[in-house]
Design goal:
By secondary structure, the chain is α/β, with parallel strands linked by helices. It folds into 2 domains: 240 residues, Alkaline Phosphatase, subunit A, CATH 3.40.720; 127 residues, no CATH class. It has 14 helices and 12 strands. It has a 7-stranded mixed beta sheet with strand order 8-9-1-10-11-2-12, sandwiched between helices. A hairpin with a 2-residue loop joins β5 and β6. The longest helix has 22 residues. The N and C termini lie close together (10 Å). 52% of the residues are buried.
Amino acid sequence: MKYIILLGDGMADWQIDELGSKTPLEYAKTPNMDRIASGIKGMVKTVPDTLNPGSDVANLSVLGYDPLKYYTGRAPLEAISKSIEMGENDVAYRCNFVNIENGIMKDFAAGHITTQKASLLIKLLNDNREFDDIEFFSGVSYRNLMIWRNGMSDKTTPPHDISDKKIEEYLPKGEGREKLLKIMEKASSVLKDNDIHKQANAIWLWGEGKKPSMPLFREKFNKSGCMISAVDLMVGIGKLTGCHIPEVDGITGFLDTNYYGKINAAFKFFSDGGDFAYVHVEATDETGHMGDLNAKIEAIELFDKKIVGECLKMSSDIEGGLKIALLPDHPTPIKIKTHTSEPVPFAVLDTSMEVKKKDVYSESSCREGIFIEKGCEFISKMLF
């Protein structure tokens, strides 16, 4: 038996009037996800009440790690993905390229700047930095990093939580506030007249934390695993837990990502003797943050066709069967353009067992199924 998690980041949503009080997931055409729902379905709470509903917290839960025990912040996980060395007292910050106009967060992704252009801007920031204990590192698109050696953790806010809001009340608060504000102000002056990507006129620092430590996936579950994602956060989680990270060309974290490359990499891992694959798709979340209803529906349907559908087709090649789990990590409702903490719908299908009934995968349908209170128990209860 092989095992796979297909995760559409932020795919769950709220009912929308213009869709006839349906959610985007209910409205979209998802025949392949509906087939998965013919197995076992239900809801799982991936975000503990005391933590913020970030993809970091939620995906740790889905992978079987209790975020209340292991979570130290988002940025250090991304630093691990880039093989950035961190000392015991170093603090990593996520560094978004953003667009701020008249004190308002107009675009948390700076027009989805390309990775190539972002790398040039990171070099520009490093060439003009004021502090020797601060260094910037390139990531993917707008998602970059800053390391503060022997630094301080501050209270920060994700930029995608404050789209179209005045930034003043959301600026860093805490012991490191003064220095962080100086860094952000200096970056704005450097980026103001750049001719590389004019929409990137500022940086936003958030997701701070020190280097975490977690047990290896193989030791925890006695199975070899791989992580497939375009997002540094997920790659960092995969590396930290000892999962294999396949190289997949053309993955972007958006609608134009290489879906087939991702699912092919998972089955290549299986053919090489691997046990478990985690296939993460970001576009369903990005379109939610954008507040773009049509784009989110498109992202859901692409995920259904090119990830879930291909997985079902290729599952016939798996000797002994494949157990497929389908879920989002958290909701990203179009209405508010950010994450929420509600339980998310899941479905699990064992391809080695004959299933004759038809079903539907959606938030409302899955509420009729079982409920898992602790998200970190999902993988052991539903797959292994």
